[in-house]
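Hi W., the cytidine-5'-monophosphate complex you wanted:
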Amino acid sequence: MNPLSGKHIVLGLSGGIACYKAAELARLLVKAGATVQAVMTEAAGQFITAVTLQALTGRAVVASQWDLREPNAMAHINLSREADAILIAPCSADFIARLAQGRSDELLSLLCVARPIERVPLLLAPAMNREMWAHPATQRNLMQVAADGAVSLGVGCGEQACGETGDGRMLEPAEIIEELEAFFTPKRLAGERVLITAGPTFEAIDPVRGITNHSSGKMGFAIARAAREAGAQVTLIAGPVHLPTPRGVARVDVHSARNMFEAVEQHAPTATVFIATAAVADWRPAAVALHKIKKDGSGAVPQLSFVENPDILAHVAASPRARHGQLYCVGFAAESEDLLANASAKRKRKGVPLLVGNIGPATFGQDDNALLLVDETGAQELPRASKRELGRALVQQMAERMRGRQ
Ligand code: C5P
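Structure:
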């Protein structure tokens, strides 16, 4: 289930051109299963109308502490008491300054000050021009606001509406959702350092050709995201895929199985969990031609010979740290039939405590999957669901098994 499902979010908009992105954010929050109560400052009303937010959230927008629709005339108390979190997006430089001072002369700042501080987190998605963001007053105010218990989700970098380029853009709505989902996820992997391989490998034949496979990397990326949400420090070693890096995840891009092996060797000594989802090529051409192999018109075909690639998972699983329980190894098996028998045999062959089986042709490139978890006690099915949900479920299962081993 999405960590935002059933959460009640007060979405506060302060004045800034990024207000137009708040409409998309409200939409994504609702899609994730949250209820959204929009609250706008007067300045936000210069950039977006209450009609837009009301239509997207299905709730009347509140913009004034003098709003007499509240029977007790205490909008700031009512709104802040029912919230699971208050998210200010966009959060302007002026609004950060107001928070730093504990001002309460308009509804949005008032309800931030009035919130039960232990129970209702205050999350900020700042948005402003790069000079305003870099100004010592803004940074000083932000430090004060953080010391007072608010959480800044950070800013993006790039082209700004004013035509300048730099830090200070509001995070994209999807990035804010990613941060929020992480915020609401129990930290089951706190303190763990998780190393994940994902995607296919590419084994060159010559400078323009190579051998690869249909792995999209989506499952591994979803697990990386879920592990980070659960509080782990995550390194993702990715073969050639076109997927965005999950927020907060360190990514290392590789091409061949040997590149992947070297990257894993470099990071495994400090990892506490290793999850091998990559579809690593079993063989590579014995030699890579220096120049493109040409068709000469005679009908002769090139003769390729192969050598075996290192088995990354088996190698890591055989390391002393893995054998002494300091590195928990998880393998994947993409099969085309008889999942249980194949996955059980592979678990033993690879020497890993947990092996996750899936039917390869049914999942390659798809956004959903079904998993079969095989460990020493037996097998457990995770029924068909989105890879995002399965990533979360797998992280939960792993955390339980790892706890059981301590
Ligand atoms: O041997 P097979 O490819 O069927 O095993 C699949 C599991 O082993 C996956 O977890 C995959 O990431 C890993 N593997 C590996 N290095 C290889 C081959 C597979 O890490 N050379």
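The chain is about 35% helix and 25% strand.

W.
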